[in-house]
Amino acid sequence: MKVTNPATEEVIANLTEDTVATLQQKHEQLKAGQAKWNAVPLSERVAVLQKFAALLKENIEKLASILTSEVGKPLQQSRNEVNGACARIEWLTNNAEKFLSDETVSEQPGMKEVISYEPLGVVCNISAWNYPYLVGTNVFVPALLAGNAVMYKPSEYSSLTGEQIVKLLHLAGVHADAVQLAIGGGEVGKTLLEMPFDGYYFTGSYKTGQYIYEKVAPKMVPCQLELGGKDPLYIADDVADIAGVAAGTADGAFYNNGQSCCSVERIYVHEKVYDQYVAEFVKEVNSYKLGAPTEDGVYIGALTREPQLQVVDAQVQDAVSKGAKVETGGKRVEGKGYYYQPTVLTGVNHSMEVMREESFGPVIGIMKVKDDAEAAELMNDTAYGLTAGVYTADQQRAKTILSNINAGTGYWNCCDRVSAALPWSGRKHSGFGATLSHLGLRAFTHPKAYHLRG
Ligand code: NAD
């Protein structure tokens, strides 16, 4: 399997893909090793995962450089990602004993009722490339803390990072037969679906997620899907600092080149502040430095996958053909590397793909609305349900709107944000189940109810 640097189009590595035979052998190894890993006291598993975080920190420059070389994100954003993963591991490890230990829920003379959180067994994690450290951490860290063995399949676009992750997990003290790496693309993913895992945890697109859900259903094992989004924002008319909000929300749309599941994908602005917001937003986007992701100060690097250039461009062309105005950007950058200009479209509406389909690239549509009701209706007009945000001086106004939006996360005066203490969960085509928080720690367990008389 060839690994290509998206910023230079050079092949930087050749990896050996797993075969059915090697995957089966790894699965057998995990099956044999899981009980031994589960027998390690939870406090020791916590210490091992904390050591893993320390190793990430120690090796951050090397890890960031490898990540940038295969996904094209600016080096500073790669460093931020590794640091972000360490912060998540800190929360998960600090809270593991609280939420994974046996829980006595009632105690009366002669009868005690206890919930025990038992591991599922050997779980399969099929992962995405856009934040391999973060989306990986959401799954393999709590799964291992809960005493499971894990088959980790990084995306074919972030396999060098996947190799580093598994190497450091082993170095930190996770048994070799408690975590294994599966190298390959969709075909390797399909093979994993044919195998008898005890749970499937997927991060990726709606299309693949739907396929996985159908394939896994007859196995009757837990399956969680963290999928894409078409995340909306509403900027209300009482926002005082329009320039500040425009800059913050532009970052929410263009950070990591818009390749975040919770990137801001469409913005609705109250007509009273629309002109000023658009002007400030475009000014901010025009200040972004585009270029080699290894260069200091670059904010827009290369897109990770070449085909996404066509997806983004087709959305821009579709919008323009239906009357949208390109405020800035709108074209692929000529020359080597998968670069697309950060693009702002106005005069958009919901007949345009850019307002309905996930863009997963550096393009945003900004639409004028007359009031909160129109904004809420448009925000809900989507097949996805990951996040939604409202900018207003009035928290109650934001809550009234957000409580009626069918999404797993609501933001007031912020966006494109994930917290380890809060559940990360989608609805509709954004998937189901939760990672992070106490729910995400327990997502890799079966509860067993003990009725203890005596
Ligand atoms: P993808 O669906 O193309 O691939 C994801 C993984 O599935 C890869 O490891 C791939 O090899 C594997 N795969 C592909 N076809 C398969 C099949 N038929 N059977 C089994 N496995 C298969 O997604 P991607 O391009 O890697 O990721 C981008 C998508 O992920 C976006 O839609 C993004 O919004 C979403 N995402 C969601 C979250 C979240 O937390 N909700 C986080 C990150 C990314």
Would you kindly provide a written description of the structure presented here, covering whatever features stand out?
About 40% of the residues lie in helices and about 20% in strands. By secondary structure, the protein is of the alpha/beta class. The chain folds into two domains: about 1-225 and about 430-454, Aldehyde Dehydrogenase, Chain A, domain 1 (3-Layer(aba) Sandwich); about 230-420, 3-Layer(aba) Sandwich (Aldehyde Dehydrogenase, Chain A, domain 2), CATH 3.40.309.10. A seven-stranded mixed β-sheet has the order 12-13-14-11-10-16-17, sandwiched between helices. The longest helix has 26 residues, at about 75-100. The radius of gyration is 23 Å and the shape is globular. Nicotinamide-adenine-dinucleotide binds next to helix 7 and helix 8.
